[in-house]
Amino acid sequence: MKRALAAVAVALMTVTGLVATTSTSASAHSTRHSQSHARLGYTQVVVAPPVYDLVTSAGITPAPLNGAKASAFKGTLAAKFPIISYRLRGLQIRHTGGISLTAGTATISLSDFNIDLARGRVSGVVNGTVGDVGRVDLFKIKGSDRGDLGLVRLTLTDTAAGALNTTFGVDAFAENATFGYATPRPFARF
């Protein structure tokens, strides 16, 4: 498991350019901040096509929040979340923005995602009909089985699956089920 996550981390950092620096100063290992999200880029998350089909057939409407963007992509939905900082030590990428899922009066919002490659998890802040849950681990990071959709695969944690099922009164979401695919694009134009 550790070997697989290390390989994903190295591939992710190599592809995204996070290791493009050769600086050995302490600042090369600290968190980077910027007023301009365009300079730091974004992470694109593509919803797995079967999940998108399930969501739309259940009448659940996704909508971007707080500066995120969403659009159609290869028969599913792609959302872009601005990167606000990253840390080479600990392999972390922090984002702003989020997405809401709404069906009738039931709603859940997921926002302010943190990718933590060292732990192989993506956390986010959860709010909605189920209450204000706060920051929890939402996804586990796995190797992608659909390179055309993203560099890594995001599978649901038990907490995320439970929150989705409770919010929408279903039992369709399960721990370790693929939710989508992610590709960080640091320094790309948002």
UniProtKB/TrEMBL annotation:
Keywords for the protein's UniProt record, in alphabetical order: Signal
Protein name in the entry: Htaa domain-containing protein
Residues annotated as signal peptide: 1-28
